[in-house]
Structure formats: C-alpha cells, structure tokens
Specification:
Elements (H helix, E strand, L loop, with lengths): L41 H10 L1 H11 L5 H30 L6 E10 L2 E10 L2 H29 L6 H10 L1 H12 L24
Antiparallel strand pairs: 1-2
Helix pairs in contact: 1-2, 1-6, 2-3, 2-4, 2-6, 3-4, 4-5, 4-6, 5-6
C-alpha cells in the first residue's frame, strides 16, 4: 500500500505580514486611538510624551524594530542637551549685553532703501546666537523627522489609511499627540506604569542591530 510522502513546510519561506502582529492585539486598518486621545492613558503615555519624549520615541522605535533603544535615546538626548545648554548661554549673553557686559558679540550690518534713502543699521548679536539657532534647527528636525517616519511606518505596517502630508502636519503642530497615538497603537508602554527602559520588539519585525 502506497503512503503519501509527508508534506514539508519551509518556515523560512513564510514571510511575516502586518497581520502577524495581531498576536500582540495590534489593531489593523485604523488607529487604536485618535490623534487627540492622548489623555486616554495619562500615566504613563501623556506624561511621557510631554516630559520625556526622547524615551517615548526610543521605545516606539524599538517596538517597531526600526532602531536600537539605546542608539535613539542617546542621539536624541545629546541633541536635546546641546539645545538646552546653548539656549541658556544665549539668554545669559543677552542679559550680559543689556547690562553693558563685554561678552563676545558679532556685529550684523543691514542696509535698506526707503524712499530713495539708504539707511544702514548695526546690531550687536551675542556670538552664541548662530550655534544656538543651528542646534535648534537640528533639534526640531530630529524630533519632527523621526515622528513623521515612525507614524508613516506604523500606518504602512498596519494598513491604516492616511498620507505623508497629514503625518507631517500632525508631527509638526501636535508632536506630543502624534507620538502618544503611535505609542498607544504599538503598545510600547504598560498602562499605569512609568517604564523608562527598552520594550520588546514586535515578533513580526526583527530587532535592528545596535
């Protein structure tokens, strides 16, 4: 009597799909919470995105397998620290300048033509102003850019309707709400518990190498 040969399934040939993430109860097709539902879980989600956005972005990045928790956290903290330090120095420089201090300044000369008359104005600006503005730009670009990328990645993986234009608007004008929405959807936190460490990467998406 002939026996049928056992069927062999090559697990390596089965590619994970966004539906595989349903094992972690991740909703597909729509957001778990609305953009302005950040108060749904005040602790820790709302508090974390307000006071520790670096941690929230690092946890979401790890959860989605986009990047290592430590790499994202350290990079954001370095930029954030530089932003704070330079802005404090800028404020001190302005105060010193107002009191007749001798702090290093750079002179900016502007020429304007008003009714055929050339007027030249000279303004003394603290020398720290330029690096402070540059770091401010990098700081904003890092946070907003990463939020746009994570929001777009989340929508693509879980088949959530939307477009990059709205992702950009949400990330620019309501950054905390956008981060909170992503964190709620991918479940990068435990309700009622403020965890500052890395979280587990979703099974369907392998962890990026550190």
């Amino acid at each position: 009597m002939a026996h049928d040969a056992p069927k062999h399934t090559d697990d390596a040939a089965v590619k994970p799909t966004p539906d595989a993430a349903q094992d972690d109860d991740i909703k597909t097709g729509e957001w778990q919470l609305g953009l302005f539902s950040c108060f749904e879980h005040i602790v820790p989600n709302c508090c974390m995105v307000t006071w520790c956005p670096c941690v929230s972005l690092a946890q979401v990045s790890t959860r989605l397998g986009v990047a290592s928790y430590s790499i994202v956290l350290v990079a954001l903290l370095v930029v954030y620290t530089a932003f704070d330090v330079l802005n404090v120095l800028y404020i001190v420089a302005v105060m010193e300048q107002g009191e007749g201090g001798t702090l290093s300044v750079m002179t900016i000369r502007t020429t304007s033509n008003d009714s055929g008359t050339t007027v030249e104005a000279t303004v003394d600006v603290p020398a720290i102003a330029l690096p402070a503005r540059i770091v401010s730009f990098i700081y904003g670009f890092a946070f907003i850019g990463l939020t746009i990328f994570l929001r777009h990645t989340t929508r693509a993986r879980y088949q959530i309707p939307g477009n990059i234009f709205f992702d950009t608007l949400a990330s620019c004008f309501c950054n905390c709400c956008a981060i909170a929405q992503i964190a709620s959807h991918v479940k990068s936190y435990k309700k009622g518990s403020c965890g500052f460490g890395p979280v587990a990467t979703l099974p369907a998406y392998p962890q990026s190498s550190a």
